[in-house]
Amino acid sequence: xxxxxxxxxTSPQAGAERVNSPLEGxxxxxxxxxxxxxxxxxxxxxxxxxxIAHHLLALDQxxxxxxxxxxxxxxxxxxxxxxxxxxRDEIFGIYNRRLHLLAMAHxxxxxxxxxxxxxxxxxxxxxxxxxxxxxxxxxxxxxMHARNDGVSRMFIHALSENTTMLKxxxxxxxxxxxxxxxxxxxxxxxxxxxxxxxxxxxxxxxAQADYGFKVQVKQFWDVLAExxxxxxxxQDAQRTPLK
Length: 243
Hints:
CATH topology: Aminopeptidase
CATH class: Alpha Beta
Number of strands: 8
Strand content: 15-25%
CATH architecture: 3-Layer(aba) Sandwich
Shape: globular
Largest sheet: 8 strands, mixed
C-alpha cells in the first residue's frame, strides 16, 4: 500500500499487538462501513499484464519504496510484472471507466505445496485514486479468496512507515509485529462457509460484468472519436481550394 496519510503510530518497543475486530466477511469491511458503494474488483489474468506494468511504472519513487520495500527502478518493476504467475497466484484490480488500472493487489502463494495454507498480500493504489478505501477493499477481497481457497494465515510484509497498510491489517484483526524499519502482520482466517463462497462468486460476476460494460463503452467512444476525426478531415479538405 502506498498511501501515507494514516494516523496510526507505533514504537519499536510495541512488539506484537492484537486488535479485537476479526475479519467477518467482505460485506462488513472497514471500507464498506465508510461507503455503501459497491466497488467492482475483478481477478486479473495474463492478458492484463501490460496494464499492471503501466500502473506500477506510474508510481513515484516514494510509492515504489513503500510498495516493494526499496526504490525499485523501471527495469525491476517490469521484471516483477513479467514474472507474475497467474496460474499460482491471484491478482485483483480496480478499473475506472477509461480502463485505467487504479489499484491492484497481489495474493502470492508459496511455490512449496506444503505451505499452501499461507499467502502473502501486497497492494498499490494510484495517487489519483487515494482516499477511496481501495486498499482496504482489495485486502478484504483477497482475504475472502484466500479463505475460500483453504488459506488459514495471510501475511503482510511492510515498512514500518507504511502506516496505512498496517492500519488496514489491524482493522481486519491482524497481529502486527514490528522489527525496526520493517513490520509483519499476520491474519488468521476462519474456514470458508457457503456464505463466503457465494459472496465471492457474486462479487466476481459483478466485476466481470462491469468490466465488460466498460470495454463496450470505451469501444463506442473510440469509434465515435475516429468518426469525428474523419469528418473534420473531410471538411478541411472541402474547404481547401484546388490549385
